[in-house]
Give the backbone structure.
Amino acid sequence: MSRLVLIPLVLFVAVSGTAFGLAKWHPAKPGLPKIAGGSVKLGDQYRGETVFSTSCASCHGQNGKGGGIGPRLVGLPISIARVKAQIDGGGNTMPAGIVKGQDEKDVLAYVATIVTLQSG
Ligand code: HEC
Protein backbone atom coordinates (compact mmCIF):
# COMPACT_ATOMS: atom_id res chain seq x y z
CA MET A 1 0.00 0.00 0.00
CA SER A 2 1.28 3.48 -0.74
CA ARG A 3 2.26 5.74 2.12
CA LEU A 4 -0.24 8.33 0.94
CA VAL A 5 -2.99 5.94 1.88
CA LEU A 6 -1.37 4.16 4.78
CA ILE A 7 -0.41 7.18 6.91
CA PRO A 8 -3.87 8.83 6.90
CA LEU A 9 -5.41 5.42 7.51
CA VAL A 10 -3.21 4.72 10.52
CA LEU A 11 -3.88 8.20 11.86
CA PHE A 12 -7.62 7.79 11.42
CA VAL A 13 -7.67 4.48 13.23
CA ALA A 14 -5.50 5.84 16.05
CA VAL A 15 -7.53 9.00 16.57
CA SER A 16 -10.98 7.47 16.29
CA GLY A 17 -9.86 4.48 18.36
CA THR A 18 -8.65 6.78 21.13
CA ALA A 19 -11.81 8.88 21.04
CA PHE A 20 -14.04 5.82 21.11
CA GLY A 21 -11.98 4.19 23.83
CA LEU A 22 -12.11 7.28 26.03
CA ALA A 23 -15.84 7.62 25.49
CA LYS A 24 -16.37 3.99 26.51
CA TRP A 25 -14.01 4.18 29.46
CA HIS A 26 -15.19 7.64 30.62
CA PRO A 27 -12.44 8.14 33.24
CA ALA A 28 -14.01 11.43 34.23
CA LYS A 29 -17.79 11.39 34.38
CA PRO A 30 -18.99 14.47 32.51
CA GLY A 31 -19.95 17.30 34.81
CA LEU A 32 -18.65 15.67 37.97
CA PRO A 33 -15.66 17.58 39.35
CA LYS A 34 -12.69 15.64 40.72
CA ILE A 35 -13.06 16.61 44.37
CA ALA A 36 -16.75 15.64 44.17
CA GLY A 37 -17.65 13.53 47.18
CA GLY A 38 -14.41 13.45 49.16
CA SER A 39 -14.92 10.45 51.42
CA VAL A 40 -18.63 10.28 50.62
CA LYS A 41 -19.57 7.69 48.00
CA LEU A 42 -21.52 9.14 45.11
CA GLY A 43 -24.04 7.33 42.93
CA ASP A 44 -25.49 8.11 39.52
CA GLN A 45 -26.01 11.81 38.90
CA TYR A 46 -28.63 11.23 36.20
CA ARG A 47 -30.78 9.03 38.43
CA GLY A 48 -30.12 11.55 41.18
CA GLU A 49 -31.71 14.30 39.12
CA THR A 50 -34.96 12.34 39.14
CA VAL A 51 -34.66 11.71 42.89
CA PHE A 52 -34.07 15.43 43.34
CA SER A 53 -37.20 16.45 41.45
CA THR A 54 -39.31 14.04 43.50
CA SER A 55 -37.79 14.59 46.94
CA CYS A 56 -36.12 18.00 47.04
CA ALA A 57 -37.50 20.26 44.32
CA SER A 58 -40.71 21.03 46.24
CA CYS A 59 -38.63 23.08 48.68
CA HIS A 60 -35.45 23.89 46.75
CA GLY A 61 -37.04 24.58 43.39
CA GLN A 62 -36.72 22.72 40.10
CA ASN A 63 -33.03 21.72 39.71
CA GLY A 64 -32.24 23.51 42.97
CA LYS A 65 -32.89 26.95 41.52
CA GLY A 66 -34.75 28.07 44.62
CA GLY A 67 -38.17 29.62 44.98
CA GLY A 68 -39.53 27.31 47.71
CA ILE A 69 -39.02 27.41 51.46
CA GLY A 70 -35.53 25.90 51.10
CA PRO A 71 -32.51 27.91 49.98
CA ARG A 72 -31.33 27.98 46.36
CA LEU A 73 -28.72 25.22 45.96
CA VAL A 74 -27.36 26.20 42.54
CA GLY A 75 -23.92 27.71 43.04
CA LEU A 76 -24.08 27.35 46.82
CA PRO A 77 -20.56 26.89 48.24
CA ILE A 78 -20.87 23.64 50.19
CA SER A 79 -19.11 20.30 50.61
CA ILE A 80 -20.78 17.00 49.83
CA ALA A 81 -20.12 15.86 53.40
CA ARG A 82 -22.16 18.86 54.54
CA VAL A 83 -24.98 18.12 52.08
CA LYS A 84 -25.06 14.51 53.32
CA ALA A 85 -25.16 15.71 56.93
CA GLN A 86 -28.06 18.00 56.02
CA ILE A 87 -29.95 15.14 54.35
CA ASP A 88 -29.28 12.73 57.23
CA GLY A 89 -29.89 15.18 60.04
CA GLY A 90 -32.30 17.68 58.52
CA GLY A 91 -32.42 21.20 59.89
CA ASN A 92 -35.18 23.67 60.67
CA THR A 93 -38.02 22.81 58.30
CA MET A 94 -35.98 20.33 56.28
CA PRO A 95 -36.94 16.88 57.54
CA ALA A 96 -34.15 14.38 58.41
CA GLY A 97 -33.63 11.31 56.25
CA ILE A 98 -35.94 12.15 53.30
CA VAL A 99 -33.73 9.96 51.09
CA LYS A 100 -31.55 7.02 52.09
CA GLY A 101 -29.30 4.35 50.59
CA GLN A 102 -28.90 4.37 46.81
CA ASP A 103 -31.33 7.28 46.37
CA GLU A 104 -29.17 9.36 48.70
CA LYS A 105 -25.94 8.45 46.87
CA ASP A 106 -27.56 9.32 43.56
CA VAL A 107 -29.02 12.61 44.76
CA LEU A 108 -25.63 13.56 46.24
CA ALA A 109 -24.01 12.92 42.86
CA TYR A 110 -26.59 15.22 41.29
CA VAL A 111 -26.23 17.93 43.93
CA ALA A 112 -22.45 17.79 43.34
CA THR A 113 -23.12 19.04 39.79
CA ILE A 114 -25.18 22.08 40.83
CA VAL A 115 -23.45 23.47 43.93
CA THR A 116 -20.02 25.10 44.08
CA LEU A 117 -18.12 22.23 45.66
CA GLN A 118 -15.97 22.84 48.68
CA SER A 119 -13.61 20.15 49.89
CA GLY A 120 -14.02 18.41 53.24
C1 HEC B 1 -39.68 20.31 53.33
C2 HEC B 1 -38.81 21.16 52.58
C3 HEC B 1 -37.45 20.61 52.18
C4 HEC B 1 -37.17 19.45 51.49
C5 HEC B 1 -38.14 18.41 50.97
C6 HEC B 1 -35.73 19.43 51.31
N1 HEC B 1 -35.17 20.53 51.89
FE1 HEC B 1 -33.17 20.98 51.96
N2 HEC B 1 -33.57 22.56 53.14
C7 HEC B 1 -34.81 23.03 53.48
C8 HEC B 1 -34.67 24.19 54.34
C9 HEC B 1 -35.80 24.98 54.93
C10 HEC B 1 -33.29 24.39 54.52
C11 HEC B 1 -32.59 25.42 55.40
C12 HEC B 1 -32.40 24.68 56.70
C13 HEC B 1 -31.54 25.32 57.70
O1 HEC B 1 -31.46 26.54 57.72
O2 HEC B 1 -30.96 24.55 58.49
C14 HEC B 1 -32.62 23.35 53.74
C15 HEC B 1 -31.26 23.22 53.64
C16 HEC B 1 -30.62 22.37 52.78
C17 HEC B 1 -29.21 22.33 52.56
C18 HEC B 1 -28.18 23.14 53.29
C19 HEC B 1 -27.94 24.47 52.65
C20 HEC B 1 -26.90 25.22 53.41
O3 HEC B 1 -26.71 26.39 53.09
O4 HEC B 1 -26.24 24.69 54.31
C21 HEC B 1 -28.97 21.38 51.62
C22 HEC B 1 -27.64 20.99 51.04
C23 HEC B 1 -30.24 20.80 51.28
N3 HEC B 1 -31.23 21.42 51.98
C24 HEC B 1 -30.41 19.78 50.37
C25 HEC B 1 -31.59 19.09 50.19
C26 HEC B 1 -31.73 17.91 49.39
C27 HEC B 1 -30.61 17.26 48.60
C28 HEC B 1 -33.03 17.51 49.48
C29 HEC B 1 -33.66 16.29 48.88
C30 HEC B 1 -33.10 15.02 49.27
C31 HEC B 1 -33.71 18.47 50.33
N4 HEC B 1 -32.80 19.42 50.74
C32 HEC B 1 -35.06 18.43 50.63
C33 HEC B 1 -36.02 22.49 53.09
C34 HEC B 1 -36.18 21.27 52.42
Summary: The two ends are 58 Å apart (CA to CA). Residues 55-56, 58-60, 69-71, 73, 76, 78, 83, 86-87, 91-95, 98-99, 107, 111 surround heme C (CB under 6 Å).
